[in-house]
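Appendix B. Raw example, untouched.
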Amino acid sequence: MSTKRIFVLNGHPAATSLTKTIAETYVAAARKAGHEVRLTHLHDLDFDTDYGFAGYAQNKPLEPCLEAVQADIEWAQHVVMTTPMWWGGLPGKLKGLFDRVLLPGWAFDTRKLTMGMPQPMLKGRSARAIVTSDTPDFFFALLYRKALFRQIKGQIFQFIGLKPVKLTHFAPAGKATPDKVKKWLGKVEAIAGEGA
């Protein structure tokens, strides 16, 4: 098995969470398997989440921590994001990070269009999202048609060129038993060991 450079983003805004435990479990298992790993916790980043402009004609300078996130994505061969699902979407601070970091001229090229869509600029990297929610998987699929997964995969990761994108869902997370969490973390360790 070849080793990879892996960037892990814990997308939970709180200092302690199951999402953070999942991210740290992934990192430990990936490093044990020989992968080179960088880890960033969203709660450690201090930045303005509001891009603040209509369109991209104006430029808002990036805070140093956001420049570091860009550098970690550029460095990585595989990007892993752990996040809870809140109100059917991403936590506001995580969405704000994407609003600020995934910019034209760096993540996508609006000067080169294919069927009206910008050219992705971060090709050559794969990705995985590990999502926790209180919504059971059955309802997530049947009622909501896995809308958040479609957003993460198609409208974020693939939009900027990350392929393939794999998705993992752990639910219901809010009242998960210790045995259930242990099982989930075992799955995370197996995924991380493969660098997937």
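End of appendix B.
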